[in-house]
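FAQ: What does the model actually see?

It sees only this:
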Amino acid sequence: MRDPEAVEAFYRRHAEHVSRFVARRVADPHTVDDLTTEVFLAVIDAGHTYRPDRGSEAAWLFGIARNVVASELRRAARELHKSGRAAGRRPLDADDIACLEARIDAERAARPLLAAIAQLPESLRAVAELVDVDGLSVADAATALRIRVGTARVRLHRAQYLGRHVEQLQDEILHGEVAFRKGTTAFLSAVLARGIVDRPGEIPR
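And it is asked to produce this:
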């Protein structure tokens, strides 16, 4: 995708969707702006990889956006590029910041669901986020993740099945019926204790 007019048209079609995708996962307006720009720069570099017969533009684009956001979250976790990044940012005026803050606030309702999904194994989490949070079809989520539609459907079913039991466990924790212990190991132990799966080998990866 090197034709300037094609790039501009593609950007206009999808910029708001990408910005909302990022705003659901990032709470800083400058970072939302940075990552949205990075997604479309990546699109220019990876344009030759898009195949219409393999899925929609949105599915392909969300796959790129997911990788860009995941990369930033890993960098943030390691506290890299925090001082140097600001120097390379384009300046945002008050209207830009207000618009991005409004978008972040509008996407705030999705964050509890994202937090709940984050407790799932990575392979299940990826499909659940794209379908249940970002609104992609199962077929488009499969395209974004480069997996078969059947695989995506099975993973989504498992994610939703486990998710229902996560809610049950959370309710029991709130009512003092299950001792609260932090961390994924404790969560999976509680799942096993409740008989949601029979043995560790059955926990989907």
